[in-house]
Amino acid sequence: MPMGISARAGRDIVVSGTLSDAHTWNLVFLELLLRERGHRVTNLGSCVPDALLVAECRRRRPDLVVVSSVNGHGFQDGRRMISEIRGCVDLERTPVVIGGKLGIGGADDGSRETILRAAGFNRVFEEGATGLPEFLDYLESLESEVLL
Amino acid sequence: MTGFGSFVAASAASGMLVVQPRMGMGDPARMRKGLLATRSAAATTVGTITLDSYTRLGETGAARRALTAGEELNGYPITVHPPGTTRGMLAGVMDDGFPVQVRHGSALPEAIFALLPALGLHASEGGPVSYCLPYSRTPLREAVRSWRRCCELLVAARDGSRAAAEPHMETFGGCMLGQLCPPGLLVAISVLEALFFRQAGLRCLSLSYAQQANAGQDAEALAALGRLAGELLTGTDWHIVLYAYMGVFPQSPGGAQLLLDEAARLAVRSGAARLVVKTTSEAHRIPTVAENVLALETAAAVADHERRAPPGGRATADTGVYAEARALVDAVLGLSPDVGEALVAAFAKGYLDIPYCLHPDNAGRTGSRLDADGRLHWSSVGSMPIRPEPAGRGTSIGSAELLDALSYVRRTFDERAFDLSAVSRPPFRGFGEPPSRVPLPDNQQDGAPLP
Ligand code: B12
Asked: Which residues form a coiled coil (chain A) (predicted)?
């Protein structure tokens, strides 16, 4: 086993859809991907109200929150969601990332990513821009970080 | 009798396949242009108003804020625009020769249905199962209650006015989760939702089925759906509506077009009266009006060609789809004389159990797989009252295996398109990059004819 990744770096991760997004294949896929890498995953499913996500994060204190949206409202839902999360002192520094298809007009030209990061997301992985390989790199960086 | 159902029936009687887009824009002016372009397309069409995701979930505040801020919505917020605005949007567009259907994906749609009669709209789609499990976290029992009241609203509008068109309701049950649901279960849910509508007083219905990954299996499923509807839906007018593939779509325009062509041929061969199309931008973003018009017109042309073709040789093989669907329907109906109650009980017992569905009221003990020909099989039937398949191996699956199954149709049709064009194209390097932003200039987006 290469350096025993799962034993060393298994993290508590919350996977979540957004308020308006009903798609679930993305969530099922991300859950499987993260579990295979040795992480403990709570999948909140689709159509997640902001308050539910915040409550679950406060309760579980996850090492990472992965938000996924593909219905085209992710840019709006994401900004609202992250301001609720960052507005909560317990969650000011929790790593939160978002990805999928975040608008209705195709790949991001970079402007959505800038705004979403400014709003408080640690990283943005939009299909066609920064995708799964970058996400896996990011995960690896979290995995090798020593938890204090 | 006028209305959506009779328009489709009349078209079918004259040998025309009705084609329909999935279309919805936030802005009423653009919505109107989209409907006008659908109406004037070179095809027998009906119009669609697809509602946005906020409106679907009753989040009118979020929809209103998006509109005010000039942000993009993925559909038409019918409960936010004043009724007068929607009536104006439809004036001179919708009439007996161009009925319009409201498509919404809402588990609790009372606010939407309450509006429809005053807007002159009488056709919608969905169902207590198919608009709940894949679309919400709402308990199934609440969705059943809400959908019953919605049917009552439509029936009251019909019975309250001599001039009212016959309300039309389409089941979305033949489409559960878009992909990887074996056809026996799709057919059963479509029929059960139609029975729910009939029990609630509706008498003009359509039953949906979504193209899956093997044309032979789809033909068998459509035949099974028609047979079951004929046996069970006495006392109603009904037709079958086929959806072009509802799962992960080919990325190349050529692959997407080949898949759409296959859907149009399947519709004609299997006697469906209506086809809901997708476009070549399905894998990437919300389509433009021009792309929708192109999809409607090519589907109509392919259907026309198929109708003139000599009847095909291959008979539809019986691999047991009808028997499976019939067993599921009978078992569910045996749970209660009230179809809504029967559906709630069936999910609680796991008699109906949708593979990969995360909804809390879905038992989640079934699994499915695709064989090398794209036929769907059960890998686990959980507690459903049907025969397990010999090759079943349980529900566990890895992320790569899941993506592989989800991409079977994409891969097959992208490769087919590549093979067809291999002579004239540079070597295949994969479809890594999706096309950039909306490629058409503004005037074309709004329905101007393509060059
Ligand atoms: C299946 C499907 C459905 C099913 C979903 C069933 C379910 N419960 O999941 C049904 C039929 C119910 C459905 C409904 C709707 N859908 Co839909 N659907 C699709 C479809 C065909 C496939 C999606 C899929 O299964 N993908 C498989 C999964 C595994 O991959 P993925 O979601 O694409 O995600 C990949 C990446 O984006 C990435 N990823 C995703 N999230 C994240 C997050 C992170 C952090 C990272 C790193 C990566 C990542 O990982 C995945 C693997 O590569 C797509 C179009 C397509 N792709 O072909 C449209 C699509 C996503 N749907 C769309 C829309 C708009 C809707 C509706 C609003 C209806 C409508 N107006 O058409 C409703 C949703 C209602 C709501 N409240 O949200 C649009 C979104 C438009 C846009 N963003 O521009 C699409 C693109 C179709 C289109 N072209 O119009 N849909």
From this structure: none
